[in-house]
Amino acid sequence: MSSSSVQVTLEKLVALCKRRGFVYQSAEIYGGLNGVYDFGPLGTLMKQNIRRAWLDSLYQTSDNILLFEGAILGAAQTWKASGHVDNFSDPMVDCLNCKHRYRTDEINLEKPCPHCGKKDWTSPRQFNMMFQTQLGAAADQSSIAYLRPETAQSIFINFKNVLSTNRVKMPFGIAQIGKAFRNEITPKQFLFRMREFEQMEMEWFCKPEQADYYFDIWVKAREAFYPYVGINKDKIHLRAHAKDELSHYSKATTDVEYEFPFGWKELEGIANRGDFDLRQHSSHSGKDLGVYDEETKQTYFPHVVECSVGVDRLFLTLLFDAYAEDIVEGEERISLRLHPRIAPIKAAFLPLTKKQVEPMKAIFDNLRKKGYQIQFDESASIGKRYRRQDEIGTPLCFTYDFESETDHCVTVRNRDTTKQERIAIDQIEPYLIALLQ
Ligand code: GAP
Predict the structure, then answer these.
(1) Segment 340-369, tens digit of pLDDT
(2) Which of 272, 281, 301, 352 has its Cα between 20 and 30 A from that of 326?
(3) What is the pLDDT of residue 141?
(4) 342 and 351 in contact (C-beta within 8 Å)?
């Protein structure tokens, strides 16, 4: 086996995702919906693994985190108070000649339009990225609602509900995984910048004087998460925001960045949001979201440390990081070296010929019923089946061959090394358990 130095490109990943049923362009048969994607069977399994790994990693840092699932439709007042109605916008310009639209920070207005070559720009203006909709039949100001552009706000407006209805004490976290929507001016780079995407956000509520301490704790914990899901440490770094790039709510932000083929880009943001959110929602709603401190006998607004990462952006990162091309037995192969935690299929069960289908199927069914994410494949030559499993990132292949009947063993093949070893059939499950630890 020899490694090749071929670089992964976005085009290669998009093609693999389509070919193997990870991700499809949404509404493809109607020409596609820009910035919107559907996830196929393998993509769906992989997303479930990402969500699980994220939650597991939070619980490893704290046993004081509660789950939450807020509504996607949000009241106009929520988004006014959060600052999104006034601040959640990107600057944009249009080319008057070809009507192409750009973010002004991504284009040089001194130069002609990259699309049509004419220089005929509109003046720059702010474009609010929230999707607005109407609730009910009467279309007036009072029926305006928004699809949430982040999951965080539903946590803030329910902070008191959660605190008062659960046996929980400060400091504690509320974690949510769910859809978010942004009308990005230029959705691009596949799953990197989408219009409909999914966020994993955890809001950590603490006393004001503890916020800096917990900010550091969570930055370290979140940095450690990426090797935990198999991402190469050298491709990850932390970047603290300069004062002039902080969001309107943030006192301090550190991004976890990944080195994509298109440069170092944000993968996750960790922010010290201070008491901005609870204070804003208290003042706009007239409901006191402060907390009474038994020690000081005073009420205060908790400060919030937020960790926020996109499921889809992480999905893309994991694929970039895992993609490999090499030569095996004189043939080129593509493989996804996904961590077993993340791989959509943990092991494939392959009878060598039709004669071994029945006994191999019995072993497979027994494990499948126990809940393992595994696949049975009896079609094509064994070499082709190995290639297929390599390309979808399956760490192990078990093969039942002519000798299995007599020696009660199978061959197990490792995706990354392609090395094979013989193990007893009753050792398959312990082997899988060890893999998944
Ligand atoms: N609550 C804070 C917040 O939403 P953000 O930096 O705007 O902060 C957090 O978003 C994370 O959500 C990003 O680091 C990224 O992983 C993901 N994300 C944001 N916009 C996205 C988009 N248009 N497409 C895919 N993922 C996106």
Answers:
(1) 999 999 999 999 999 999 999 999 999 999
(2) 352
(3) 79
(4) no
Residue 261 φ/ψ, nearest 5 degrees: -60, -20
Ligand 1 midpoint to CA 237 (Å): 17
Out of 2-11, 38-47, 397-406, least confident range: 2-11
- pLDDT the model gives residue 188: 85
Distance, in Å, from the CA atom of 406 to the CA atom of 126, rounded to the nearest integer, reads 73
Q: Is the CB of 84 under 6 A from ligand 1?
A: no
Closest to 422 measured CA to CA, from 409, 403, 405, 435: 409
HSE, side-chain direction, 13 A CA sphere, residue 295: 3
pTM: 0.95
113 CB-contact burial (10 Å; exposed 0-12 / middle 13-18 / buried 19+): buried
- Predicted local distance difference test score (pLDDT) of residue 2: 44
Does residue 208 have a cis peptide bond before it, meaning omega lies within 30 degrees of 0?
no
41-52 burial string, b = 16+ CB within 10 Å, else e? ebbebbbebbee
Q: Answer whether 193 contacts ligand 1 (Cβ < 6 A).
A: yes
What is the residue with the minimal CA distance to atom 19 of ligand 1? 310
CA 318 to ligand 1 centroid distance, Å: 16
Ligand 1 atom nearest 195 alpha carbon:
23
When the pLDDT of each residue in the chain is averaged and rounded to a whole number, the result is 95
